[in-house]
Amino acid sequence: MSNNRIYIFDTTLRDGEQSPGVSLNVQEKLEIAQQLARLGVDVIEAGFPIASPGDFQAVKTIAERVKGPVIAGLCRATREDIDAGWEALKGAESPRIHTFIATSDIHLKYKLQRSREEVLEQAVAAVKYAKQFCSDVEFSAEDASRSDLDYLCTVVEKVIDAGATVVNLPDTVGYAIPDEFGRFIKAIMERVPNIHRARLSVHCHNDLGLAVANSLAAILNGATQIEGAINGIGERAGNASLEEIIMALYTKKAFYQKEVAVNYQEIYRTSRLVSSLTGMVVQPNKAIVGKNAFAHEAGIHQDGVLKERTTYEIMKPELIGIYKSNLVLGKHSGRHAFSEKLKEMGFELSGEELDKAFRRFKELADKKKEVTDDDIEALIKDEVWAIPERFRLNYLYFASGTRLIPTATVGVAIEGVVFEDAGTGDGPVDAAFHVVDKITGLQGELLEYKLNAVTGGKDALGEVIVRVRVNGRTYVGRGVSTDIVEASVRAYINALNKADFDRIRNNNNSSSDQRGQ
Ligand SMILES: CC(=O)SCCNC(=O)CCNC(=O)[C@H](O)C(C)(C)COP(=O)(O)OP(=O)(O)OC[C@H]1O[C@@H](n2cnc3c(N)ncnc32)[C@H](O)[C@@H]1OP(=O)(O)O
Ligand SMILES: CC(C)C(=O)C(=O)O
Ligand SMILES: [Mg+2]
What we know:
Residues 6-268 form the Pyruvate carboxyltransferase domain. Its EC number is 2.3.3.13. InterPro entries: 2-IPM_HCS-like, 2-isopropylmalate_synth_dimer, AIPM/Hcit_synth_CS, Aldolase_TIM, LeuA/HCS_post-cat, LeuA_allosteric_dom_sf, LeuA_bact_synth, PYR_CT. 42% of the residues lie in helices and 19% in strands. It is α/β, with parallel strands linked by helices. The chain has three domains: 7-278, TIM Barrel (Alpha-Beta Barrel), CATH 3.20.20; 299-383, Recoverin, domain 1 (Orthogonal Bundle); 391-506, 2-Layer Sandwich (Double Stranded RNA Binding Domain), CATH 3.30.160. It has an eight-stranded parallel beta barrel, surrounded by seven helices. The protein has a three-stranded antiparallel sheet with strand order 9-10-11. Helix 7 (178-191) runs parallel beside helix 8 (211-220). The site of magnesium ion (MG) has 6 residues, from loops.
């Protein structure tokens, strides 16, 4: 294998899920993991198994079902965490136990309340313990960039002696700057005598907006594994954005002379899926995957691009899976054109999924003159990436105005049987949500509501993303329609379906636990 290879470690499902307000269920995590495997990342950190039964189940399911990448699970440097981690990971084709402990004095003194000697001992013991189960063990020195360098070098050397195959040096609080971080990695490479027996990794946070720059500086100085998340999501200001690192290495290959083994065509789709399932909207001017990343607004730029794209484009959008099609779809389009378009867009649908998507497409085409690629993508996300739905919107009627009490009548099918009710609220959306609560018997508390126009124009599809708390847990729901009240109700029902899905799964788990006793 080329020694220019950079390994991509994706932590969207672990650190990415630590973004405030993000909570993915097992099915959603599995879908993201499957897409990450299609993208071709080297490692998927599927979760933190001891953190919750849901996290444990997600790691276990991904370990058993997702083939290709190494599947990692995060564990504190304790036997209990490592036991749970291994239990979840052991079904994987290539499992990796990822154990960590902080090494900076500030974390030792205030958080862990342990001495340097105690932490060194605990780190070594954790690696040795993990090694009994799994040959691939990653050790992370949390807050490495703020740790005493001599002490950190000792920890790194000893964990490698204990069997760590990968040593990760995180900039946990995003405090580093590129030159400094590059020198830090160089010092580790020079001072730790056995460093070549392990792979050196970095994990940068974006508190100063430098996570990608710091990761690239680390690559120049010897790091061969880069950790990050799709769309740069994660704790606080997020993690290094993987798509940005991948495309920087590609675009500046002559400079870095490094290779990654990803399937570039899947980058955009992965970004859209993560955004859709986490509810974390990608800012339009975000590098690589933002809506405006390849848009040219100014006349001089447009003129340049029309004459020769490279005047203002340093990357081809097609390379990352953004494509422009000549097939214009509308109400006169048939199944063949629709299915051809989906193929062009990279969607592989089963016959049943295609039927559902085609039905929604025809409904939309009746309301909208031209159905754009963005509209189609929004419908696919709504129909095909949705979890199994016990509740489905059957019909919606609402009335509101300046002198009316907003009223809604809603029909919701529960397992195919339609129930209807009516109610009032502070507005038509609120009224409809109350009615949905009454029909489903679930009490949703709306925490956040976002409305985006999928395309421009008066007939644009509206996409609504809601965050709803049900029984103490937060669920993201998403709905699209040309009518924003309908999109809102679809989004709300989508979130309740996820809550219901969890409720049924928890009931099943507790009854099988009882049977096991
Ligand atoms: C930098 C990072 O991203 S680290 C990963 C952060 N992710 C998360 O924390 C998400 C999941 N976390 C959780 O669900 C919970 O925090 C759990 C289940 C892990 C632990 O929950 P609790 O047992 O209730 O402990 P709590 O979170 O309050 O405190 C953490 C404890 O772990 C200890 N700890 C923290 N890191 C480590 C470590 N790497 N190794 C060993 N112990 C550690 C702390 O010192 C504290 O111990 P104490 O109770 O003796 O003071
Ligand atoms: C647990 C480690 C890898 C981490 O997320 C960090 O230090 O930011
Ligand atoms: Mg982190």
